[in-house]
Amino acid sequence: MTIALSGVGYRYAGATKAALLDVDLELRDGEVIGLAGASEAGKTTLCLVVSGLAPRTVGGQVRGTITLDGEDVDTWPMHRLSQRIGIGFQNPSTQLSQVTDTVFEEVAFGPMNLGLTRDDVVARTWAALETLRIDELAERDPRRLSGGQQQLVAMAGLLAMRPEHLVLDEPTAQLDPAGTHLVADAIRRLAADGASILIAEHKADLLAAICSRVIVLDGGRVARLGATDEILGDPTIGELGVAEPSSVRLSRAVQAAGVQSDRLARALADG
Amino acid sequence: MAGGSRLSEASATNRGVPDFLGRPGPSAYHRLNPLTKATLATVTAIAAVVIGGLSGPTILVVVAVIGPAIAAGVLGRLARMSLLLALPIALSALLVNVFFFPGGETVLLRIGPIVATAEGLAFALEILARIMAISGAITLFYLTTRPADLVVDLERRGISPRVAFVANASVQTVPAMVERAAQITAAQRARGMDTEGSVWRRVRGIVPIVGPVILGSIAEVEERTMALEARGFTRPGRRTLLWAPSDSGGQSLARWALIAALAALIAARVAGVVG
Amino acid sequence: MAELRVAGLVHVYRDGGVRALDGVDLTIRAGERVALIGQNGSGKTTLVRHLNGLLRPTEGRVTIDGTDASSLTVARLASRVGLVFQDPDRQIFAGSVRAEVEFGPRNLGRTGTDLRTAVTEALQASGLVGEEGTNPYDLGQSRRKLLALASVLAMQTPVLVLDEPTTGQDARGVERVGAAVKAVSEEGRTVIAISHDMRFVAEIFERVIVMRAGRVTLDGSPRDVFAAEAWQALRSTYLEPTLPAIIGHRLGLGSTPTDASLVEAVAGAQ
Question: What is the reported pTM?
Fold first, then answer.
């Protein structure tokens, strides 16, 4: 199940400038692709376009072709696409339905919409809650949780949909390091299940840990696309507003200081 | 990087439907089907208007409001809330009718040119009884039924999940905005906005709050819509319900009986037999 | 300037009865650069909201320069403690960047040249020079966050509190925040920042306070807090030491929380 973008451009309704230009990208089964770039480089826009929300819900104009397993999705309505491609945003409060009184029902909201059997819905919900270690929150009111907890609940709601493809726009922004690990872990497991994931993030260490490839946007265009180590190790990405992973930064600091140490080099290589 | 175990195998324990869903109410009355309780409230309110006199509405209040309230253990709260709800109307109805009832002859009290009459008082009491029946019925329903439960019940009976969602969400709008306003107020106070000063200061203080509340709420609507769409919200057809309030043949019969009784009452009223 | 003192601070939220702070004792001296870290729910935000009076203690006292905070209104405390909230959209209301940044200092009584200078400096620190007339909602999310920072910087309070200033920021944004923190500190003002970014914490701050379940569990320099002896305490609140700290320990070089300190230690050992 591959999502392929070919020469894709996008312009928001009423905008004079294109927000995305000439994007070629393939998301293959089991892949986790990182999306990096300066703020306003087009990361969120790309997330909206890949998930189909742009132009369907957001308006605007898309150029180029987007295909799902070879089939052009141009005419697909949103509810058809959303069953195959899930999308998660930064802000937890807008991702919660606000109509449920318990975390369990909140996470079950998506699967309930899919018309599955009740047992299926319940099983998926527990699986999602357990994966993110929030099963003990099952009875709590989602509206009264902290921002970080709400983000995990929102993520669980997406996981419960078992999407083939998942687009995540800075899902760990509000999370503490523990929450970030949980999300990273969940993403790995989803990928192991065969899903493809596109994750927009500023945290270079997170991208280095879970992504096999990274795409960097600059002014709406693809500035870099390749294997994670290669892209994040490139000394010029700083100009593109992308932070270096801790290990890369440390290596550079060592080099810059003219210090030579085999032990250090080995320790860095071990990770 | 740890090798990922499959998400689909994550739930080794089969935990089943959690028992906290459905949240059975504390009393048998609470546990009645929401539609039953809604029917009782509606029939009571309409009957109170249809039945004339004093004894009719009073009996209604005792039988259809106070009785169930005692059974449900909410009498105290019901009394407070329904009185509060009815107070403005009751007060004005009382004053107008006691003092200005046309055809009142038996004088009770004289304050200058204004006269309180016994007939006026009698009429005022009738109106009061009606008001209490209506506000009591509504309050009883509100205190013993969660709006979400009613919506789920209706959804089970066939209303569209999208409509059900809107019904539930609208109940949320005001609390959500209030919460948002509270957060924004905190941020503005932290920048020196004085909320503890003169009235004029406080009025001026509304501008830095209203803007973000409204704009923010509007901006959120688009994101909310997108998030809902991503969770299959717009998929046509029904959705799987995890639970629904229980119902019984007996309750269904009771509902129809209440409606039939109301119809009969209205017919009797129209025919001039009652009222 | 301002010394902050917190004694036996307990806070129980009325709504839900959660005991968010369970006895906190702290003294923060004027001019200190303090990072407040800990997992979500450990009480960090609750604690800082006591510093400007948005929350009042259930038990205990908060004093600012010897004055009991509970004797001052939030508006009065705002002249001493400026708090930048995590979500800029719960704060920004003006139609232009300039008006937004002016709001705070105006409330504090600044006018004329004083006001203009304060605003200009704040805009410079946050990289928003040239955007004075722009509508805040025409800026991207991360620049709006910098705008929120600017609007509190302009208040020139002796104490500056930042709630997660680097989340959602790209590399340049993080640099700007770090530079702003250093600049404020150089003026002798106190800075307190809540952060999940351990790298940012280790590099910019001289004192790190770790919280867990409403209490302070560690309090020291980055060297102390990221030393191997402290790792268990850190991990119990789901935090990780920085990469240089881990490698420095592995190489037996003591506590090296930052890149620079590790490089120095390696060079020194050779």
Answer: 0.85
Domain C-terminal end among A161, A193, A215: A161
Q: Considering only A108-112, A117-121, B91-95, C115-119, which range has the smallest mean pLDDT?
A: B91-95
- How do C59-64 and C4-12 pair as beta strands? antiparallel
Query: Which residues from C are below 8 Å from B180, CB to CB?
Result: 90
Average pLDDT over residues A50-75: 93
Q: Which residues of C touch A176 (CB under 8 A)?
A: 38-40, 196, 238-239
Transcribe C137-148 into DSSP letters: GGS-HHHHHHHH
pLDDT at C262: 92
Structure tokens at B129: 């009884």
Interface check for A207 against chain C (CB to CB < 8 A): the answer is no
Residue B145 three-state SS: coil
How far does the CA of residue A251 sit from the closest CA of chain B (Å)?
21
Q: How far apart are CA B16 and CA A124, in angstroms?
A: 11
Exposed, middle or buried, B169 (CB in 10 Å: 0-12/13-18/19+)? middle
Residues 6+ apart with CB under 8 A from B213: B177, B180, B181, B184
CB-defined contacts A:C, below 8 A: 96
Residue (of C190, C200, C199, C224) closest to C210 by Cα position: C224
Side-by-side strand order, sheet with A196-200: A85-88, A165-169, A196-200, A32-37, A213-218, A221-227
> Tokens standing for C247?
């490698």
Q: What is the CATH number of domain C4-72+160-172+189-240?
A: 3.40.50.300
Kindly give the pairing relationship between strand C207-212 and strand C33-37. parallel
Quick one: A75 and A99 in the same domain?
no
Chain segment C143-164, per-residue pLDDT in tens: 999 999 999 999 999 999 999 9
**Domain limits for position B102:** 34-145
Using alpha carbons, list the distances in angstroms from residue C28 to B106, C3, C194: 79, 6, 15
Does the residue A257 lie in any domain? no
Range of the domain at A102: 92-161
- Inter-residue contact C261 to C244 (CB < 8 Å): yes
Whether the CB-CB separation of B251 and B33 falls below 8 Å is answered with yes
> Which residues in chain C have their CB less than 8 angstroms from residue B197's CB?
75
pLDDT over 50 (residue A30)? yes
Domain termination site, one of A117, A132, A161 = A161
* Chain A residues near residue C267 by CB distance under 8 angstroms: 257, 259
Residue A25 has pLDDT above 60, yes or no: yes
In chain C, the residue whose alpha carbon lies closest to the alpha carbon of A268 is: C247
C260 and A253: CB-CB below 8 Å?
yes
Beta carbons of A100 and A127 less than 8 angstroms apart: no
To the nearest 10°, the Cα dihedral for A58, A60, A62, A66? 10
Nearest-CB residue to B6 (from A157, A159, A193) = A193
In angstroms, the CA C49 to CA C58 distance is 13
**Number of structural domains chain B divides into:** 2
Which residues of chain B fall below pLDDT 70?
A: 1-14, 196-197, 274-275
Q: Position of tokens 């294997």?
A: A227
Portion 40-99 of C in contact with B at CB < 8 A: 49, 52, 54, 73-75, 78-79, 82-83, 85, 87, 89-94
Size of chain B, expressed as the number of residues it contains = 275
Q: What is the pLDDT of residues C200-259, one digit of tens each?
A: 999 999 999 999 999 999 999 999 999 999 999 898 888 889 999 999 998 899 999 999
Chain C neighbours, 3+ Cβ pairs < 8 A: A, B
